[in-house]
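We treat protein structure as text, and this decision shapes the records that our systems exchange. We quote a single record here, exactly as it is kept in our systems:
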Amino acid sequence: MSPRTLVSAAADSTLRVWDPETGALLHTLAEHTGPITCFQHDEFKVLSGSDGTLKLWDLRDGSGTKDLLTGIVGVWQVVFEGRWCVAASNELRAGKERTVLHVWDFAEEGEDWVGEPPGGVHDGSDVEGSGDEEDD
């Protein structure tokens, strides 16, 4: 839950966005075709997994902005923090079902960014021991 929104998911393939102060329904997100298996949200976006897809939604207007994954067996976990997202899915590869981790940087050029950008980008230049030399 964020201070501005509460999101619920259901076996009827929908996510619902609520105003936590008034209890008013703000949006019904209904592009999945199977039960929602996982989701996470902040005040700007929600990522939801179901039916072999992982979807990114814009909570400000309730629109589906992008299918991040399609054609997979299922998504069973999604986590994001700021511009980074990690999802665990099951995929068929060479006739065997395997667990795969997918990572996105939403701040990369060409990616949809829904939310406020982070305060800055860390380039690693002030991290001690970040090279091949041994740490003291």
